[in-house]
Design brief:
Radius of gyration: 13 Å
Number of strands: 0
Structural class: mainly alpha
Strand content: under 5%
Number of domains: 1
Mean pLDDT: 85
Distance between the termini: 20 Å
Largest sheet: none
Order of helices and strands: HHH
Low-confidence stretches: none
Helix content: over 70%
Length: 52
């Protein structure tokens, strides 16, 4: 099946969170509190946007 473009575009909001996790996992980089907060905001925003 096909997904609507608006739902597919929401994955772009979670990309920085994914990259931060991979940087921690493979490179040992520790995210700052601001990065963690921004990731939480992005995930919550994506969840809210997919509900409507």
């Amino acid at each position: 099946g096909e997904l609507p473009p608006t739902k597919v575009a929401l994955t772009l909001y979670t990309l920085p969170l994914f990259c931060t996790f991979m940087g921690w996992l493979f490179l040992g980089e520790l995210p700052t509190m601001l990065a963690i907060l921004g990731g939480c905001v992005a995930v919550v925003g994506a969840l809210i946007a997919t509900q409507y």
